[in-house]
């Protein structure tokens, strides 16, 4: 069963809230290899609370519970209408804009929790762990959704570089798969996975994210 609702007019810098943040893990083969993880059979889903959201290029403050915070740049979809059990062929009508986000990860905490077979939400969902670009670009601005370049620079040096063509699960698959388990609602944000090159950040770093060649993220680590 699919629900079709008329989306609200597009506003680039003012997503609708309340919302939830849903994330895709292990969606780029090279990233899976660099962390020596197993290749998943289906999209790996986790969530961040709304308190993880960091907007308007506000600085990211290093938490005191981790000594190894890693950056993970990602393309982020903005959901534009409610839907459940969405077929892949209808998935493109459920997101209207694409932006950038950083999935900050407390890698030391994550490794500790994983080694004990425990959930690792604390390593992903802490306050401020989900910076997003203030501007989201309308889907219509992209001639090919399977060929979107993006990158992250740290202190002017390229650390991560990705393209949506390298995703193991594309946007439509992600939308469809999530909606089998979790109802998507207008304003939800979906982080679609990170390419290789993840690494630690430190106080004083400046992180800059580019969608194609347009700078959309620029935040300081404090």
Give the key terms:
Fumarylacetoacetase_C_sf; isomerase; 222 residues; globular; 4-stranded antiparallel β-sheet; alpha+beta
Would you spell out the secondary-structure blueprint of this structure?
Layout: E1 21-25, H1 29-34, E2 44-48, E3 53-54, E4 69-71, E5 73-79, E6 95-102, E7 105-106, H2 107-115, H3 121-124, E8 130-131, E9 137-138, E10 149-154, E11 157-163, H4 171-181, E12 189-191, E13 199-200, E14 206-211, E15 214-220
Parallel strand pairs: 1-12, 3-8
Antiparallel strand pairs: 1-2, 4-7, 4-13, 5-6, 5-12, 6-9, 10-11, 10-14, 14-15
Give the C-alpha Rg: 16 Å
Q: Biggest sheet: strands side by side, in what order? A: 2-1-12-5-6-9
Secondary-structure-derived class? alpha+beta
What fraction of residues sit in β-strands?
25-35%
Number of strands: 15
Distance from first to last alpha carbon: 47 Å
Helix content: 10-25%
Unreliable spans are 1-16
Count helical runs: 4
Structural write-up:
The chain has 222 residues and is of the alpha+beta class. 14% of the residues lie in helices and 30% in strands. It has 4 helices and 15 strands. The chain has helices at 29-34, 107-115, 121-124, 171-181, and strands spanning 21-25, 44-48, 53-54, 69-71, 73-79, 95-102, 105-106, 130-131, 137-138, 149-154, 157-163, 189-191, 199-200, 206-211, 214-220. Strand 10 (149-154) and strand 11 (157-163) form a beta hairpin. The longest helix is centred in the last third of the chain and has 11 residues, at 171-181. The chain starts with 20 loop residues before the first strand and ends with a strand. InterPro entries: Fumarylacetoacetase-like_C, Fumarylacetoacetase_C_sf.
């Amino acid at each position: 069963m699919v629900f079709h609702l008329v989306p609200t007019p597009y506003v680039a810098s003012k997503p609708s809230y309340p919302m939830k943040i849903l994330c895709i893990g292990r969606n780029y083969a090279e990233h899976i290899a660099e962390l020596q993880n197993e290749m998943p059979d289906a999209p790996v889903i986790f969530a961040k609370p709304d308190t993880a959201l960091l907007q308007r290029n506000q600085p990211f403050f290093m938490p005191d519970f981790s000594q190894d915070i890693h950056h993970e740049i990602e393309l982020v979809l903005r959901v534009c209408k409610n839907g459940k059990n969405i077929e892949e062929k209808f998935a493109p009508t459920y997101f209207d804009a694409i932006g950038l986000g950083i999935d900050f990860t407390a890698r030391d905490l994550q490794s500790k929790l994983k080694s004990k077979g425990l959930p690792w939400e604390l390593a992903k969902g802490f306050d401020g762990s989900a910076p997003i670009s203030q501007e989201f670009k309308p889907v219509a601005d992209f001639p090919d959704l399977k060929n979107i370049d993006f990158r992250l620079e740290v202190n002017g040096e390229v650390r991560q570089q990705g393209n949506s063509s390298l995703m193991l699960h594309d946007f439509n698959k992600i939308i469809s798969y999530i909606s089998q388990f979790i109802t998507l609602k207008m304003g939800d944000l979906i982080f679609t996975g990170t390419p290789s090159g993840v690494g630690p950040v430190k106080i004083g770093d400046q992180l800059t994210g580019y969608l194609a060649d347009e700078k959309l993220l620029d935040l300081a680590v404090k």
